Amino acid sequence: MSAQLLDGKSLAADIRAGLQEDIAAVLQARGATPRLAVVTCSQDAAAGAYLRAKLKAAAETGLAAQAYPCAEGPASLLRRLGEDPAVDGIILEQPVPKGGDAAEAFAAIPPAKDVEGVNPLSYGRFFLCKSSAEIAASGVFPPCTVSAMILLLERSRLPAAGKEAVVVGRSEILGRPAAHYLSALDATVTLCHSRTVDLAAHVRRADIVFACLGRAGFIMGGWIKPGAVVVDAGMNRLGEAWVGDVESAAAAERAAFITPVPGGVGPVTTAVVLANTVAAAKRGLRA
Ligand SMILES: NC(=O)c1ccc[n+]([C@@H]2O[C@H](COP(=O)([O-])OP(=O)(O)OC[C@H]3O[C@@H](n4cnc5c(N)ncnc54)[C@H](OP(=O)(O)O)[C@@H]3O)[C@@H](O)[C@H]2O)c1
User: Fold this and answer.
1) Ligand 1 centre and the CA of 245: distance in Å?
2) Of 90-99, 163-172, 208-217, which gets the smallest average pLDDT?
3) How does strand 208-211 pair with strand 229-232?
4) Ligand 1: residue whose CA is nearest its atom 1
């Protein structure tokens, strides 16, 4: 079997094209396009590359976007942007400062502008939703990479209900909320992590694998159940190349569907951030 690619680039292009009407409506109503503020605390090259990609995607889509480097703790800057009526969406670029600083920073982003779903109130409300209908009705933005992974399934009409889903990685922004979303879609979910005994055995029985651990090619192709769906969020630098968490060529021999890395989850995540910013701007018009 050779897996069909879940093409993130084309899904991202469709999402961004679908925003044009709403962007025009916001522009007409208030004389300014939706605006995204990207706060960045890191000097590292990968963070710079992510940032440039986001600003470029925003500009190409017709949103205003600006980077805000923070020399010290980001919380006061985030609060100021939260109070700025010209700003619709705020994101705090990874890597974020560890420990108390990160918690304070996430809490400083007002839920109405929290387009990545990291504020504890948004996060908690998301976890209180028991179904995808409740998530949609709640008005919160789920963590954006998780939304992207779910959209990749939905676009190819791959149902999660009744399936065995295995999520590898349990971080706050990725694995844990991904497991919750899959459960809300009625999958039967196993959440694996670094202390899981016999990870291979869990992956082997998965109809859906969500790879969220950040270790290049760690999930072996031979572990993948024939006909499974593999969604790989991993972004690992290997020399000059980016690779995912799954041994992709071997996995594609067994899976029915697989995301490429790069070109899978990443561009859809960016498109989700832009879509959420436009949605936040539209809500602002009604407020
Ligand atoms: N495409 C995108 O838009 C996007 C967005 C965000 C992140 N990412 C990528 O996704 C990956 C994960 O990011 P993250 O922020 O969630 O990472 P993280 O905070 O470092 O979390 C990694 C998780 O993987 C688990 N893990 C580590 N080694 C493992 C092993 N050998 N077996 C099983 N589980 C293991 C850890 O378990 P413990 O909890 O036990 O430590 C942890 O829960 C990274 O490559 C990141 O670049 C991509």
Assistant:
1) 9
2) 90-99
3) parallel
4) 266
